[in-house]
Specification:
alpha+beta, Creatine Amidinohydrolase, Creatine Amidinohydrolase, Chain A, domain 1, 6-stranded mixed β-sheet, globular, disordered N terminus
Length: 429
């Protein structure tokens, strides 16, 4: 099915004719949902991560633990526990997690009333130690460690573990030295396997198609809330049952603020449009931003849009194996400063990092920022989004992602094509 905007590249206003941005406007929500459903039906399936891969991750973690003399690590409910054990569970005020010792099997800890449910979610089965609501889970945790021979020494706590759990464990056993487990968790998670990259690729492919449809349904008078609601439906049409994992839609001057403003906006002719959205596929994130003009771009909009594209390309070129993450951020800023933006984090310019790692968390290590000197390695995955913010006017953010290969960076999604044709679409004559 071909969207109707391919046949509506000009818009008449009275006796004048305004050239419309290709792919922006001219279609309907119904047409675009049907288009996305057809695409979804043609997609091949990607296999879930199997228990064998989780076991390999645990073995890698234990190998690192031996190297750094860590007796065990605690993984709180959330993405770290999911990454290593395949057990999906949301963190709450109750202590639920997994313990990986330096040697031996995984042990789980949860309230008694959750035991059966937790076992249902396990990909890697293990002994489950439980506590009743009136009991201390922290003492239970300490006793569990004692039972496997850990009465003192270093125990790594998952870096996302809430303070109340760390405080509770610390008070229950002053003899344990609690340290940050990031050296284990990040070392494993920041380099993605081919399977993980395939899941990330599919998630991003889905969201890029959603972006095309979101652009196509725009019209004067539509508000940003309506756009976000459509994007949620569009992700569902592409087979993502939960819909969007997040959505930011901004029009006009509001596009100058990276994470948006409080109130919704109504679209007007020649407004800058910024849409940032994503979804989750088997827990893996997409996160893509597109910026374009509804109508005809002004000289100023065109110049800034092209500078942003150049900054994104500079960051991509700088991302080479063995180079520090900071070098990518510096490359983007150098380009922006050449055109008078900045310097550094000053605005008008780029007030935030150039990019972030992505995987099971939408923002994860390492980061493309001046303070991160982690060397780039094969399998690392990043956003590339050196946004230009001009308060009082507009903002432009091109956000695509890339992953590191032996030969350098490779795009998950190709960057925006041009301000007149952001999605690089072929029009019908």
């Amino acid at each position: 099915m071909i969207s109707s905007w391919l046949q509506n590249q000009t818009k008449y206003s009275g006796s004048s004719m305004t050239r419309m941005t290709i792919g922006v406007g001219g279609s309907t929500q119904k047409i675009e949902i049907q288009r996305l459903q057809l695409i979804s039906q043609s997609l091949s399936s990607i296999a879930d991560i199997k228990p064998g891969e989780y076991k390999d991750r645990i073995l890698k973690a234990q190998s690192i633990m031996k190297t750094i003399d860590l007796d065990a690590i605690y993984l709180n409910a959330g993405t770290n526990m999911y990454y290593f054990t395949g057990t999906q569970w949301h963190a709450s005020e109750r202590m639920v997690g997994a313990i990986i010792p330096q040697n031996g099997p995984v042990t789980y800890l949860c309230p008694w009333f959750e035991k059966s449910t937790l076992k249902d979610f396990m990909s890697i089965p293990g002994k489950t130690i439980c506590w009743n609501e009136h009991e201390s889970p922290y003492k239970l945790f300490v006793n569990l460690l004692s039972d496997i021979g850990i009465k003192s020494g270093k125990v790594g706590m998952d870096e996302s573990t809430p303070y109340f759990i760390i405080d509770g464990v610390s008070n229950a056993s002053p003899d344990l030295q609690l340290v940050n487990a990031k050296e284990v968790t990040s070392s494993c998670r920041m380099k993605k396997s081919e399977h993980e990259i395939a899941l990330l690729q599919r998630a991003k492919d889905i969201t890029l198609e959603v972006h095309k449809s979101a652009a196509a349904i725009l019209k004067p008078g539509i508000n940003t809330l309506e756009v976000c609601q459509f994007i949620n439906k569009a992700h569902k049409a592409m087979g993502i049952a939960e819909g969007s994992s997040f959505c930011i839609a901004l029009f006009g001057e509001a596009t100058a603020y990276p994470h948006g403003v409080k109130d919704s906006q109504i679209l007007k002719e020649n407004d800058m449009v910024l849409i940032d959205t994503g979804c989750l596929l088997n827990g893996y994130n997409s996160d893509i931003t597109r910026t374009y003009v509804y109508g005809e771009a002004s000289t100023r909009q065109r110049e800034v849009w092209d500078i942003e594209k150049e900054a994104q390309a500079s960051a991509f070129k700088a991302a080479q194996i063995g180079e520090p993450c900071s070098s990518v951020d510096k490359a983007a800023r150098k380009t922006l400063e050449k055109y008078g933006f900045g310097p550094g984090y000053k605005i008008p310019g780029l007030p935030h990092r150039t990019g972030h790692g992505i995987g099971l968390d939408i923002h994860e290590w390492p980061y493309l920022v001046m303070s991160d000197h982690t060397c780039l390695e094969k399998g690392m995955c990043f956003s590339n989004e050196p946004m230009i913010c001009i308060p009082g006017e507009f903002g432009v953010r091109h956000e695509d992602h890339f992953y590191m290969t032996d030969g350098g960076p490779r795009w998950f999604t190709q960057p925006a094509h041009s301000i007149d044709n952001p999605f690089g679409l072929t029009t019908i004559k």
